[in-house]
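pls design
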């Protein structure tokens, strides 16, 4: 059975993207930078989560952000107020960041700063529940956000995003009393797609659950710091 032209093209695109992602990750590893890829539908709260995270962790970690949006630098400008380097990437009509775009962001960061001084780079991907999950960018872990306003069925309707996530943040928990949503069913649907994902309910607005998120981030950074010691043991 022969592949269709579209299927073969998709395989080639993903293969080329993976090669670029592996190259990006090798740069991050060389510099000792942990990279986290934040993905969600539009409006789930990625940017406000980053605002809270940058404000809370900037005393402990040297951070930067690669900010992806189809147009404008509105989110990038919000994050620049926290005195961290923010590289804005406009994707035009593309609904996701790919490894080549992030490679350009890496080179811009390396041109303006000493990358070895950084501990952590966040990639804020374009708001979309489909494409970002399929295109790796060189991240060490994928973080998905799901707002409770989106309903319990999203993990079943958009399985790849939730299957690929290393950490899933259930956001806007402060709205739970005002919504008809079954949180147990939501979690069960998530676990059906990904039994091992770290699941953290939170409200960035009210601060609930943020400490658990911050601790998860710190753990990811620490993993990369001890990796060279493990390899030489």
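designed seq:
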């Amino acid at each position: 059975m022969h592949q269709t032209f579209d299927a073969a093209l998709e395989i080639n695109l993903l293969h080329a993207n993976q090669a670029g992602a592996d190259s990006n990750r090798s740069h991050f590893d060389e510099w000792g930078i942990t990279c986290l890829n934040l993905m969600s539908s539009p409006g789930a709260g990625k940017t406000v989560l980053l605002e809270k995270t940058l404000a809370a962790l900037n005393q402990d970690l040297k951070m930067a952000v690669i900010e992806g949006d189809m147009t404008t630098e509105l989110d990038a400008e919000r994050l620049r107020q926290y005195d961290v380097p923010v590289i804005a990437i406009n994707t035009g009509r593309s609904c996701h960041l790919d490894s080549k775009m992030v490679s350009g962001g890496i080179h811009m960061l390396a041109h303006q700063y000493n990358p070895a001084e950084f501990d952590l780079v966040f990639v804020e991907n374009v708001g979309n529940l489909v494409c970002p999950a399929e295109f790796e960018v060189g991240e060490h872990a994928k973080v998905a956000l799901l707002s409770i306003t989106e309903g319990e069925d999203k993990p079943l309707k958009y399985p790849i995003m939730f299957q690929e996530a290393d950490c899933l943040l259930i956001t806007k928990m402060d709205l739970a009393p005002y919504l008809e949503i079954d949180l147990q069913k939501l979690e069960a649907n998530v676990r059906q797609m990904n039994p091992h994902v770290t699941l953290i309910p939170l409200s960035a607005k009210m601060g609930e659950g943020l400490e658990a998120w911050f601790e998860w981030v710190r753990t990811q950074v620490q993993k990369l710091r001890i990796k060279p010691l493990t390899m030489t043991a």
